[in-house]
């Protein structure tokens, strides 16, 4: 049954107060919030009867435990950034519990018409510009109850708008953190590159402490004609955070996106990541790195949607699992009838670092065109004891040997990532998490 959540700000009265507090928002934003909240009130939580959720258990998730965006407030943050080591940035954004605490953009970029900052602020000040480019939106706001929750109560997040022909040669960075018991982050991220624009956006999330938390977010990306976006999303919450997200990019004619995902944290993650190739000769490269331990459960549903001819997509996800953790990857390549001469590839590899971990790998194809090249594959296996013995015979400890093997396993993904700081951050973070593998 649908829950009534009057004590924590998810009821009708609290929603109306939330809307009134945000009187600076454009009418079109408010109208979308109202429609989504109405749908949220009438919807039920996902169940195991649905394909996307049949391997995910949310029975222990209780929304009423978490502070809603209605009550959340900003606070100071000391969270370290992992992706910006030795990187000269063109702008930065920092938020805590869904509220911005720092925002800056270099003057030369602002003079060219670039917009970068908290989504709330950008929509309040430049709502017409964003609406003109975003239209009805990119993600489905009623896909499930978590999508409805974000669409109605989103707060914070980052928005980047790059005008036609503008090339940003310095990365932009956004860091979101959760701080305090039962805090929440309902971020909405919007990235829009107009025709011929180029940009690099580094985004990461982290927890300050070991408190339980909630992230319910969305990412909407539009890559215009002949535009080029490098987008990195590092999810590094602590192991007590529930992480739900809807993420989708639309790439137009001759546009290109390189989308890198690092999934290291969260108690449970349920993410829908989609790329729609909507214009001829559009291209997408998707890189995924997952590392789990303890009782973590990470589910990533990826979708490569070829809507136009001569498009290319290349997806590679790799996961290493320790302890009793579990990963689920469901990949789908869908080719519309108009998607002739498609070249699409997807692969998922899993390295089991314990006998009690589990990986579910489910690739899929749905092809309506008759002139395509679509391939997919998946592998899962344990660490080879012979490799460990060989490294130990050369003077390495057992843990050092395991760490080398894990690093080698992920190297194929790292080689595809063109940003050195991202490669180093992911490698260091994984290396610190690797445990010894018991013999026998």
TrEMBL record:
SUPFAM superfamilies: Stabilizer of iron transporter SufD. Coiled coil: none annotated. Residues 24-172 form the SUF system FeS cluster assembly SufBD N-terminal domain. Residues 180-409 form the SUF system FeS cluster assembly SufBD core domain. GO terms for biological process: iron-sulfur cluster assembly. Belongs to the iron-sulfur cluster assembly SufBD family. This is FeS cluster assembly protein SufB. It comes from Pseudobythopirellula maris. The gene is sufB_2.
């Amino acid at each position: 049954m649908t829950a009534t959540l009057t004590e924590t700000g998810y009821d009708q009265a609290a929603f109306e107060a939330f809307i009134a507090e945000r009187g600076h928002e454009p009418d079109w934003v408010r109208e979308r919030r109202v429609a989504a909240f109405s749908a949220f009130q009438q919807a039920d939580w996902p169940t195991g009867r649905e394909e996307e959720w049949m391997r995910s258990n949310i029975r222990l998730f209780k929304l009423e435990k978490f502070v809603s965006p209605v009550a959340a407030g900003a606070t100071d943050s000391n969270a370290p950034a992992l992706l910006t080591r030795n990187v000269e940035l063109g702008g930065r954004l920092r938020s805590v519990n869904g509220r911005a605490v720092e925002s800056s953009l270099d003057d030369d970029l602002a003079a060219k018409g670039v917009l970068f900052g908290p989504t709330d602020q950008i929509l309040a000040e430049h709502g017409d510009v964003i609406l003109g480019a975003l239209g009805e939106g990119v993600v489905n706001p009623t896909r499930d109850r978590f999508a409805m929750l974000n669409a109605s109560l989103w707060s914070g997040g980052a928005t980047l708008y790059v005008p036609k022909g503008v090339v940003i040669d310095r990365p932009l960075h956004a860091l979101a953190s959760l701080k305090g018991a039962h805090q929440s982050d309902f971020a909405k991220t919007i990235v829009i590159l107009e025709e011929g624009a180029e940009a690099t956006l580094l985004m990461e999330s982290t927890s300050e402490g070991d408190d339980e938390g909630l992230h319910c977010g969305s990412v909407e990306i539009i890559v215009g004609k002949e535009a080029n976006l490098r987008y990195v999303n590092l999810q590094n919450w602590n192991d007590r955070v529930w992480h739900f997200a809807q993420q989708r990019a639309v790439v137009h004619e001759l546009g290109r996106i390189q989308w890198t995902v690092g999934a290291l944290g969260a108690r449970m993650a349920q993410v829908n990541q989609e790329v729609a190739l909507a214009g001829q000769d559009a291209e997408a490269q998707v890189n995924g790195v997952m590392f789990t331990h303890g009782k973590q459960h990470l589910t990533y549903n990826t979708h490569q949607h070829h809507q136009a001819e001569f498009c290319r997509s290349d997806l590679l996800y790799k996961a290493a699992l320790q302890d009793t953790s579990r990963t689920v990857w469901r990949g789908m390549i869908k080719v519309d009838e108009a998607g002739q001469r498609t070249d699409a590839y997807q692969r998922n590899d899993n390295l089991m670092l314990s006998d009690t971990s589990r990986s579910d790998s489910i690739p899929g194809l749905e092809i309506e065109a008759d002139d395509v090249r679509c391939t997919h594959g998946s592998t899962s296996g344990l660490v080879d004891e012979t490799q460990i013995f060989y490294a130990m015979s050369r003077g390495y400890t057992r843990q050092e040997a395991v760490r080398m093997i894990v690093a080698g396993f992920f190297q194929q993904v790292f080689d595809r990532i063109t940003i050195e700081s991202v490669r180093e951050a992911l490698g260091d973070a994984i290396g610190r998490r690797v445990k010894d593998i018991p013999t026998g």
